[in-house]
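Internal QA ticket QA-208
Title: Verify multi-chain structure generation after dependency bump
Assignee: T.L.

Test input:
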Amino acid sequence: MKGSFVGKAKGGKLLRLSVEAAGGVVTAVSVRGDFFAHPEERFDELEAGLVGCPVDELGARFGSGAAALGLTVYGLLPEDLDAAVAAIRASGATP
Amino acid sequence: MMGDFSMRFRFIETGYASAAFNMGLDEGILNAVAEGRSEPTLRFYAWRPRAVSIGYFQGLEDEVDEAACSARGVDVVRRVTGGGAVYHADELTYSVVMPESHPLAAGSILDSYRLLCGGVVEGLKALGIDAEFAPINDVVAGGKKLSGNAQTRKRGCLLQHGTVLLGVDVDEMFALLKVPNEKLKGKLIEDVKARVSSVSDRLGRPFGYAEALSAFKLGFVKALAVNLADGEPSPAELDDARRLAAEKFGDRAWTAKR
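Actual output:
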């Protein structure tokens, strides 16, 4: 199961989320867009760390992972990821 | 208003260069400031050939029509900073690098965006254009965007770079950039034309890079209350810039990493 979302995040910037999941667990995810986060390279680790997370907890895992990695994120909120997953579900895909 | 001597910045103007070199020199300056080899620095520059830069978190294929760029001789580069895709043609680009411990780097990220974008705002005001900072990272005049800016913190330093649109060709921009929904492209182009302007548009006459230098130099002096000491990139910074241009910013693996 897979799907993607493109839209304005509540945080203010454009979010492009692509998610693949099996049995409600994320198997692949890509978080792209024109938001800001630093240190930038740590974001790659944050994104990789979302694999294996329950798809319903994507936002929470993103928020706690960012804090643990010392990332400052601007223009994108954890809840934006949950809203994107909900939009993907509503469009018919069921990640 | 002039600052005291402790608020001295080096000012360098490096003219037109390739996208990979331009991004390499910003990082080379950051490395030198981080290692205490260079003073806090304000740099002005421009792009030749014309270029598209994308933000660190953007997907290359999402944002850029690479075939169109190649056909038109337009460079494509990924920045170390976040933010959106920018078409660099008729513009003045600046970068500011200072240690995070510098008084001008104090406060929140938004505070420092506001402070540093003040250089652009004051430069525009010096030209008679009533501009203001528009959070998170834009400068607008008459409700239209004239400048986009992007900041990061690395190696204990703050780097902010940004553009001042001296002229704008929205149709050319959209020939090079992709849009989220191709079916809505026409409407999006009209929206951007309504929301983006340039110094030349505002002044009602062609206004180029050479003419912009003095106005924006004064703008940054006023906004940051710093003394600018005219200087040059050091040989080590230039070596670093060339190395980074070849090994990082000119490397497909970096450009296509997302």
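Spot checks passed. Chain B has ten helices and eleven strands.
Status: verified.
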